[in-house]
Amino acid sequence: MSSYNPSTPVLLLNGVVSSIANKDLYGVNNGTGLQNIYITYDLVIGSINTQSIGDESTRSGNARQYNGLDIKVGDWVAQVDGTGAG
């Protein structure tokens, strides 16, 4: 999972969600009412724009740009207003 690094600026990419599929249910009945609520989703995001960055901290071969190939498991995916995508 990605970790927060306060010395690295936030990177924002715009894209278009073309599909969302329910994946894993919260399977624990612990009195919270969350049992049988989906907690993970599979998203297909396309038309992802690049963001220019000031260094070469992304994968090699794409220096000074951050794009969809740089997204890692655990990165926050949200709608434009900052709310969850799923």
Layout of helices and strands, plus pairs?
Blueprint: E1 16-25, E2 38-46, E3 51-52, E4 65-66
Antiparallel strand pairs: 1-2, 3-4
Which features characterize this protein?
two-stranded antiparallel sheet; mainly beta; 0% helix
Q: How does this structure look, described?
A:
With 86 residues, the protein is an all-beta fold. Helix content is 0%, strand content 27%. The chain is built from no helices and four strands. The chain has strands spanning 16-25, 38-46, 51-52, 65-66. The strands form two sheets. Strands 1-2 form a two-stranded antiparallel sheet. A two-stranded antiparallel sheet has the order 3-4. It is elongated, with a radius of gyration of 16 Å.
Order of helices and strands: EEEE
Return the average pLDDT rounded to an integer: 76
Low-confidence stretches: none
Sum up the overall morphology in one term.
elongated
- How is the biggest beta sheet arranged? 2 strands, antiparallel
- What order do the strands of the largest sheet run in, or round the barrel if closed? 1-2
Percent of residues in beta strands?
25-35%
Radius of gyration: 16 Å
Separate helix tally: 0
Distance between the termini: 18 Å
Helix content: under 10%
Structural class: mainly beta
Number of strands: 4
